[in-house]
Structure formats: structure tokens, C-alpha cells
Amino acid sequence: FGRPAGVLSPVSLERHAVKQLLDGVGASSAGQGTALGDGIALGVKKLRERPPQSRVMVLIADGDSTHGSFAPVEAARLARLAGVRIYVIGVGSKQAQIPIFEEGGVKYRDDLTMNEDILQEVAKITGGAYFRATDTRALEEISERINQLEKSEAEARTAFLPEPLYR
Description:
Radius of gyration: 18 Å
Number of helices: 5
Largest sheet: 3 strands, parallel
């Protein structure tokens, strides 16, 4: 959810393909700035096509939102109307000196600190939950807790096409 927000991968059970797409993501690959509200709104748009029990979003963010058409709280209200629960994982620092990667290396700015209030509000509005990740191990534990909270059946099908699809 950079500027603008976009979908890297559709909802998929193809974990290998999604992992390959994520491996190609780097700092600023979505553009400069953060459109947190637009990212939430776009996720809601995609999830409203899913069965109601599958409308769950996991948002990993620092709460910063510098661009976009939707404020994060406004997008959370849209999520609630669409029946989307958002589990928010807060990452970042409550203090200054968060590294912002730019083309010429690393530049430190002291005006970008974690905004936990926004993240907690997004989770509360949607009936989800807020978690604070302080390191990789905490992030893995939070992921496991979310997996225990949300269970739904998914069906995968393989289709065999006996005809070639090329000329």
C-alpha cells in the first residue's frame, strides 16, 4: 500500500507463487509514501467477494499514512460494513530514527514513529485484534495465534485440459 495502493497477488492457495512475488518486493517498490487507508480499502474490495467466514485481513504496518484517498479509520469502517475482520500487527519503533530506504542509501528521519493508536482503532472497529511485534520471533508467535483464531475450509481444485491452449 504505497502510492498508489495495488494488489501484488490475488487471494491464492499457491503459496510458492505468492512467495516468489513477495521475494521481489523491496524498499520503495510500491512508491514513496504510504497509502494505508487505500490498502485497507483495496483489501476489503477483494475480500468482499469471498465467503463471509473467509473475510479476514492481516495488516502488518506501523500506522503511518501519508497518502491516499481513504483515512485508515474510514477504510476500517468500510471493512466492518463488508464483514471483514482485520488483525493488525504493529511493527516499528515508538521512538524516532526509523530508517527510510532511498536510492542513495539509508536516510534517517525523526518524524516517522509508530502510530499504535490508529492501528488499535482499525482492529477495534472491525472486530479483529491488535498485536505488537517487537522482533521476528514475536511476529511468528502472533501469526500462530491468528491461525488459531481464524479457521475456515478452503477447497483447491486441479483442472486437466486435454487440449493445448496454444496454436
